[in-house]
Amino acid sequence: MIGTTYTVSSIEAHPPVVSATELASIVDGVNRLVPGFGLKTDEISHVHAGLLPITTTQGDPSKKLQRHSHVAMPRPGVLRIDSVKFTTAPEIARIVLRAIGKVLEIKASPKPLELPQASMHAAPDGVSEVVWMRLSERYGSLAARVLEWASSHPEWLQPVSPEESVLRVEVMYALREEMAVSLCDVLFRRLDVGSTHTPSEAWLSALGDLLTSDAGWDKDRLAKEIESVKACFARMGCA
Fold first, then answer.
1. What is the pLDDT of residues 85-142, one digit of tens each?
2. Fewer CB within 10 A of the terminal residue: the chain, N end or C end?
3. What is the 3-state secondary structure (H, E, C) of the chain?
């Protein structure tokens, strides 16, 4: 993740897409700060685009963007959170807890959750070190719980396809335990694959095929799910 830029847009006019000009602006900024880096636009593998609110419709909208995360309680019992980014989410979570604690008149001092590291333990019998390390790194202390889903389906400990390291059991865990309801849910919100790169259409099809019977999808539904994922990538400017 190398930078953020802001441009006035209108959701009515078009979905937010990163233009070539905006991408070049970010790359130029990086190269000015670190001249020896020599970053090129064609070396960028993934971009994200989103919308921020403006604080007022008066004046120059480019100067009214709410660029920083904001937590407010406009009315009792209603908490509003704006403009949260991946890099600011932990701090915003702390602010939210403090705000809730103030309303409930309790002391809220969030602390990091200390859990035993699953990777410190040897892989269970019948499970390869590679599989155990992946599950440990992704799920931490819940790795053993994810692994339980493959107890009667050892083939789920294999990757969805050789292109990605995502295991089949991760997909089934996302569907059955984490209650994903769409291919977008699985890809972006559960596996977090789509946040770092654009997987191939062949891999998406393999992922969809794995989900089809369990999710109760037919061929038409699967095709719609894949098209929905493609549309998400297009809106992110990385189709």
1. 767 778 888 888 888 888 888 887 766 666 555 556 778 888 999 999 999 989 988 9
2. N
3. CCCCCCCCCCCCCCCCCCCHHHHHHHHHHHHHHCCCCCCCHHHCCCCCCCCCCECCCCCCHHHCECCCCEEEEEECCEEEEECCCCCCHHHHHHHHHHHHHHHHCCCCCCCCCCCCCHHHCCCCCCCCHHHHHHHHHHHHHHHHHHHHCCCCCHHHHCECCCCCCCEHHHHHHHHHCCCCCCHHHHHHHHCCCCCCCCCCHHHHHHHHHHHHHHHCCCHHHHHHHHHHHHHHHHHCCCC
